[in-house]
Amino acid sequence: MLPQPAWKWLAGIGLCFGLVLFVAGGAMFYPTTGAKSPTAYRLDIYPVRRIEAELVYHQKCPNLQAREWIVFVARPPELPSQSDVKLSVEPRGQPMVESSPLQRDLLLLRLPGDGARWQQFEVKVQVQARLHARRLLPREPRQPITPAVVLPVLERQRFLTAHGLCDHSSREFQRWLDARKLRRSPGESDVDFARRAFLAVTQNWKYDYRSGQERQASKLVTEQATDCGGMSLVFTAALRANGIPARVLAGRWAESSRPGELAGGVPFHQTHVKAEFFADGIGWVPVDPSSAVLHDRTKDGLRYFGNDPGDFLTLHLDTDLQVETVHFGPKTLPWLQGVAYWVTGAGNADRCVTSEKWEVRKLAP
Fold this sequence. Notes:
The chain is mainly beta. It contains 6 helices and 20 strands. The strands form 6 sheets. A 5-stranded antiparallel β-sheet has the order 1-19-3-6-5, with no helix packed on it. Strands 2, 4, 7, 15 and 20 form a 5-stranded antiparallel β-sheet that branches. Strands 14-13-10-16 form a 4-stranded antiparallel β-sheet.
């Protein structure tokens, strides 16, 4: 067994660079302030495309004689933004549930280090899904109100809890909320407060990807720059601290990676992080803070609030997946947008080389 566990994940820490989003289905609506009733808005959700996304991940370690590779892959969930999700992985893996309070579904692959896997392994992950656009729209005065959208008690509790990087109960984060006046006012609706929190993030952070940045929400509020994962975490933490369920969406853009494209000096394979919050009576409302910082030049800055064109595949919800690594005990993965692995054997992992390919194809409806 190696003296130190050789492990790596290709989460990209929520990389997101220079991608311009377009909203399908006509002109955008930018909600204005002043609506106090949750029924002042409605959420328009409609399918826009079916895709097949394929990730081919290859790891080669020439100084290693592996005995066993322990590999983890996230199982993409069914969400308002994606349905009919199907996952296949080669080699085949064993379904498991990670041990954090969110209990997210994963696949565990145990690959013996013999033959071709002595110094390397390859995993192919295929996901088919139907992607949905979502738009937050004003409800017309005489428009009939559909049955209220209610979040189950257990799910509400899960997405209000302080956990891992989303440490909104910390003293540092609570002080930041007070300094920014991010306390919910009496009668302020979920949407109205979420809009204020969204602007507090997008107007006070610059985009900057740093692989070694500490991304606890309590640490990020002392920074002036972070990436898509950091901005989504601060937004999510602010809403949870005010009693509004919110969650991070970690995944990849639904388009193929381009050879040679870099982000922060490393290969970029379309990894990205968004967020969404639950508005009572409306449903899960999408937000994309870092895209707003990078691309929104509108006067109100709300182009990416309540507007999702359906061009993103969520691979897992929230951060801090807790896995049992078989040989190295329990470990925490901040993100799992690709493949994470540990390995036993002789030698070392000093010269390991990682390659991956992300291809997305449009399928017939």
